User: What shape does this take?
Amino acid sequence: MNSFFRSIICNSTRASKCIEKETIQELWSGYGTIKRVELVGADVDSVIVKHVQLKAQNNHPRGWNTDIGHQRKVKSYHVETNWYEQYSALSSARLPHCYAETHQEDEVFMVMEDLDASGFPLRKRSLSWNEISSCLQWLAKFHASFLGKESEGLWDIGTYWHLETRPQELEELTDQRLKEAAPLIDQKLNSCTYQTFVHGDAKLANFCFGENGEVAAVDFQYVGGGCGMKDVAYFIGSVLNETESERLEDQILDTYFRFFQDELENENKELEQEWRSLYRVAWADFHRFLKGWSPGHWKINSYSERVTEEVLANL
Assistant: This one.
């Protein structure tokens, strides 16, 4: 970090000094780093710094090194700074406080709360049902917080697999029937009556857990408008295998909507009916992306194929 970025950290946290402690991870495709930084003389002992370098010379892990992909990624980081600047304080779902964010030429720099230090130090590779329920509650709180809001400065349509942003993956899709139906699936989700903000990348790796069972979430690069079922279907696909996803489907939806209705001033059964009918549509939408992006991916399974076949038959 140069002196300019160090001054941002110190000024935003009122620290007298900051010291790089560790690199938590490299950003996808080589776009920068996420680091933990120790503070001296501040009210908190550490912060998380996300330092993005938006140069076009990157290395996609699956070979998708294209200008379309680069421009999508560039926009995603600007969306994330807009999210923290304009919207994050409105969320009743727990997420990190942003102390500062800035742009300098082709770099983006964000100083955020260290959730580990705030009581969310655990990362999970698998979840119990109670932990799944806690994540569904987080999603319900998040979606209820932004129900009917306009996503100005964010993605018009959230999620990183949104059809309009993935023309190359659609071109690579060999399932011709699904390929032809992709715009109809997309339209069905985008034209639903009840819209909210979706997290857009609500996988297990983006949830942080506390010892007491509470949950927080990170990574808001793909937040934008949409049907909440996109997040729910994607999250479940990241934590359950095909047998569990099918067996627990009703329980998953019942649990999510119980939490969601609790967040509303007045129960909205019309919304629930509409979104329940779109859960499998959202599942098929992600399945479409996955089959074009990575045909051998472990998430492509018989349950996803059956769900997608049902959706195609009902279009």
In short: Residues 129-314 form a domain with the Aminoglycoside 3'-phosphotransferase; Chain: A, domain 2 fold (CATH 3.90.1200.10). The CA atoms of residues 56 and 67 lie 8 Å apart.
